Amino acid sequence: MNQKIAIQVDDLTVAYNYKPVLWDIDLIVPEGVLMAIVGPNGAGKSTLIKSILGIIDPIAGSVTIYDKPYAKQRKLVAYVPQKGSVDWDFPTTAIDVVMMGTYGSLGWIKRPGAKEKKASLEALEKVGMLAFKNRQISQLSGGQQQRVFLARALVQNASIYFMDEPFQGVDATTEIAIINILKELRKAGKTVVVVHHDLQTVPEYFDWVTFLNVKKIATGPVKDIFNDDNLTKTYGINYKVAVSK
Question: Which of UniProt's keywords are assigned here (predicted)?
């Protein structure tokens, strides 16, 4: 593999109440890929991302980001959580949410200034939300809220982006806008990891895929491993997916 390794997971095991949710996961994600994590409900997809980010502590194993622990590489990483995990009633505007993405580079003492506000406005414009900059996030639609959180990730100018079901509950227009931005990030050499449910769109949207069902079933280029055999192993039934060639 000539590409740099952006993310490496070794022997990762996570359990809730002594029940394994992830079991002995080994995973290498090359730099510059747009990767989907797919698997059935309860497969551990969100848990894998949260373990990589240190939100959940594994009972075994290790994770490195560009050969160093996540704690030392935090500034290289941006995260868009699941919509359901966000308090959308929190009284704040779209521009304020996006500017929160600049805090990591500023530290806790400095406050965002003109440079950070300009970058935040540009990120809102990129996701088509500039006109809503002063709108309370609770007054936005689900798709609009997701675009705002994507803008917050963009303003971090990270090297690696983790997104937990970014297409959940969004309209078709928003989905197309989001995937186009993710493809732009990949084109710029960024690494993008997405928990994804719609198997039909995997070949169209992604160039790399990881099949997960508590254990890692397979990982690699979509063109090589997105097939009926791996789908059947992952979902436990004879699985056929219509893939446009």
Answer: ATP-binding, Nucleotide-binding, Transport
